[in-house]
Amino acid sequence: MLTVNNLNVSFGGVKALNIDSFSIKDKELRVVIGPNGAGKSTLMDILCGKTKPNGGEAFFKGENIIGMSEYDIAKRGIGRKFQKPSVFTGLSVFDNMLLGLKTDKGVFSSLFFKLSGEQSARIESVAKKVGLYEHLSKPAGALSHGQKQWLEIAIVLLQEPTLMLIDEPAAGMSDAETEKTGELLCELGKQNSVIVIEHDMHFVEQIARDKVTVLVRGQILTEGTFSEVKNNQDVIDCYLGTPGSAQTVSR
Ligand SMILES: Nc1ncnc2c1ncn2[C@@H]1O[C@H](COP(=O)(O)OP(=O)(O)OP(=O)(O)O)[C@@H](O)[C@H]1O
Ligand SMILES: [Mg+2]
Asked: Model-level pTM greater than 0.70?
């Protein structure tokens, strides 16, 4: 589904990412962990076309997406949820989702075009999936932090991606919201390939049914199952054992 080779990028002469090889399979749910500044979000920035790397390849369904625009990459089926929620707070949940609906029309015209029953049904079905059906008419600004994150996930889902890139979905969520988010991601992982970046190790444990990748200083330190990674001495030294760099305390 996705194969990355020799991908590297520097910012101001400092290497932020230098990955020899990284690949994920169809319908795999991959979790990427690592300290602050390790390059996790930068990897997603490159995969969605927001950041151009200095070198390397990323084959998505056999096609090298490096050098393509964000629009062309999205069209090929890679959807991205950013670290900070950025929904339109003044618009209703429904209208935010309408803007995210896959359509050939531009952003502004899509607010005014006549909604078909099919499109409306699709918004409702995705809203149900992420637990926002009851809140469709509410302004997005009135949602809780967790609900805003789900709205962002809903907007990504409406683009019908085959690979979803989800950056720190549980940051700032309550325990109940975190648990629900984990269930949602596991559900999404049955239909799509999903890459999730996360710091909360309890949450990682909940969702990591496939491999976990550990990124440190722009490089892949190791990959393995949750328990392999958790008990890896290098991972403990570089990340898990450092107070404040991973949320390993009991919730
Ligand atoms: N657009 C940019 N311009 C300059 N430097 C950048 C840019 N994006 C990222 N960096 C730098 O690259 C490094 C990796 O950052 P990145 O945001 O990918 O880390 P991260 O692993 O996502 O960290 P966190 O866990 O804090 O979100 C950092 O040193 C960061 O300051
Ligand atoms: Mg980040």
From this structure: yes
